[in-house]
Amino acid sequence: MVQKYQSPVRVYKHPFELIMAAYERRFPTCPLIPMFVDSDTVNEFRSEDGAIHVIERRCKLDIDAPRLLKKIAGVDYVYFIQKNSLNSRERTLHIEAHNETFSNRVIINEHCCYSVHPENEDWTCFEQSASLDIKSFFGFESTVEKIAMKQYTSNIKKGKEIIEYYLRQLEEEGITFVPRWTPPAAAPSLETSLSCKKPAASLTVVVPDPALKEGLSSEPLSTPSGAPEPTAGTPDDKLDADYIKRYLGDLTPLQESCLIRLRQWLQETHKGKIPKDEHILRFLRARDFNIDKARETMCQSLTWRKQHQVDYILDTWRPPQVLQDYYAGGWHHHDKDGRPLYVLRLGQMDTKGLVRALGEEALLRYVLSINEEGLRRCEENTKVFGRPISSWTCLVDLEGLNMRHLWRPGVKALLRIIEVVEANYPETLGRLLILRAPRVFPVLWTLVSPFIDDNTRRKFLIYAGNDYQGPGGLLDYIDKEIIPDFLSGECMCEVPEGGLVPKSLYRTAEELENEDLKLWTETIYQSASVFKGAPHEILIQIVDASSVITWDFDVCKGDIVFNIYHSKRSPQPPKKDSLGAHSITSPGGNNVQLIDRVWQLGRDYSMVESPLICKEGESVQGSHVTRWPGFYILQWKFHSTPACAATSLPRVDDVLASLQVSSHKCKVMYYTEVIGSEDFRGSMTSLESSHSGFSQLSAATTSSSQSHSSSTISSG
């Protein structure tokens, strides 16, 4: 498996030329890096005007590895080739390095870049990326990988310290300014210089693109066949190391890399609708910074948020009066760490009465609104206290808990709430203080604890009786001035006292269902599965020509091709038999095929729009103005990535993909609507259907449009 690393942007508040003077002092050896024994210059080139300076070194490293491993490998030192390409005109330094030792067994590539800060020309930015691919190493592949990652991360931490050390050294010597490069009075052109004096055959002069002046471009990882070509970027695409420390906390280099790489993946696949960095980090922490697992759970959560319109819950949903009167919970100041504090008097709450009066779905929705408010309060407290706050503390008072709280439907509702919150709000609970736990509590704990994540369980502190008043109790976590009055504190707590819900407010299951309180069914979107050879199709009948068909869909998994067809006759209704070719049922959504296999394109039906290829993660909105009455078929079809045209052999990725059954299945979530042409521009419904807000956890939402003669398709 290839290990990858991508650093955040590290900023030195010093001019580029001074940083270069400090950097050069690292050679030929650096006492601050014990493993860096020595280096020899292999090739060197300098343009006649002095603007371009390329130097290639052979670096000797003493890797901290077990003596037995070194003996088996037959080496005492490891050698790397490092090429530095300095462009004084553009004020950039690109550093490329790869291993020479064991290059047939281990492939290590690194790319670093020093450049001018895009907003302050007297500051310097630094980025680095690297990859490690261990093909084979005498059966010690795992050991070598751990040693390499440990050595690399320790050197990353020292990188900025070393530059700052040499900056101080320069200052002690009276060097606080290095003049910028200026062209000689009568210097020949750069092209003439390069043509008159060519470098050695093994050396390639890298003249970075002028667009890289900004210095904040994303650097793809090097490959064995050559160095990566830097790509241009903008400051908004990057994470600054100081920003990470201020708003996200202290992360290890590898944790920073995971955050940046997952963020980049979201930028590429979700077209700018990127969840906030704190939210991405929560999912990474919940999955121990396993990028693949975090990406999967986060995408599922983002889809869930959109499908059930959770993003708008604080603005559009008002809790029923019963909840406001009898739900004994509410926000109450903050704990000693600055976390928002939520108080829940569970022992005083009539869970059975609330479920009977409101239903399980209304309770779930209320808990979701509490979590959304918690996210908002964390952001506010981060600004107020000047340090990262990404979770809240929950204080649960169990005085009054009895067997009534173990009512089976109530426990079932609690378990479901825990399941939904665990899946969609990971790492938001910083601490849970359970006070005055009665004898019946172990019974409840036995029922619910298996459904709580291990990391979350470790945040629970349980106090029986009045133990919370002693050493290690409540005062260790909450200031005395804000301890609620019902816990013998001095602060008046405005949390409702709860109490029994009057039976006159109870409703039957039929009444609850008729009032449409179910959160899961309150959505205008439908889900569908698309398989290889089995597209999903929906039928829209148009009576009046010049009607407008609108659509809004998200590609949740895989890549698909979106088509629109017209037919004068209606397709046969899909068959329900599981072996038929028309209908497939799957847990992830339905699959319906309407176009009969005997139908011929051009005879039985026609294509009215060019096919649109949609990638995983994309949100697509569009409309089609119909020309004729009849039957229109919207189709989502599996998209197979074509093999490389340069060779008749399949690519490795294609072979691997063909071996994975899951790669032959796609998921889409869609909504369609037909609007009269005269109402299209002014209809609020049409405006809503043409806007796809994947998540209000997004820092920004963008969209782009392509206009055709009869349709408008926006892919955001």
From TrEMBL:
Keywords on record: Cytoplasm, Golgi apparatus, Immunity, Innate immunity, Phosphoprotein, Signal transduction inhibitor
Compartments in which it is found: Cytoplasm; Golgi apparatus
Domain GOLD: 521-674
Coiled-coil zones: none
Domain PRELI/MSF1: 3-175
Record domain CRAL-TRIO: where: 319-495
Presence of keyword Phosphoprotein: yes
GO CC entries: cytosol; Golgi apparatus
Pfam families (UniProt xref): CRAL_TRIO (PF00650), CRAL_TRIO_N (PF03765), PRELI (PF04707)
Major localization class: cytoplasm
Stretches for region Disordered: 214-237
GO biological process: innate immune response; negative regulation of RIG-I signaling pathway
Gene Ontology MF terms: RIG-I binding
CDD domains the UniProt entry points to: SEC14
Keyword DNA-binding: no
InterPro entries: CRAL-TRIO_dom, CRAL-TRIO_dom_sf, CRAL/TRIO_N_dom, CRAL/TRIO_N_dom_sf, GOLD_dom, GOLD_dom_sf, PRELI/MSF1_dom, SEC14/CRAL-TRIO_domain
Alphabetized SUPFAM superfamilies for the sequence: CRAL/TRIO domain, CRAL/TRIO N-terminal domain, Supernatant protein factor (SPF), C-terminal domain
Subunit text: Interacts with RIGI (via tandem CARD domain); the interaction is direct. Interacts (via GOLD domain) with SLC18A3; the interaction is direct. Interacts with SLC5A7 (via GOLD domain); the interaction is direct.
Function as written in the Swiss-Prot or TrEMBL entry: May play a role in innate immunity by inhibiting the antiviral RIG-I signaling pathway. In this pathway, functions as a negative regulator of RIGI, the cytoplasmic sensor of viral nucleic acids. Prevents the interaction of RIGI with MAVS/IPS1, an important step in signal propagation. May also regulate the SLC18A3 and SLC5A7 cholinergic transporters.
Protein's name according to its UniProt entry: SEC14-like protein 1
Annotated source species: Moschus moschiferus
Gene name as annotated: SEC14L1
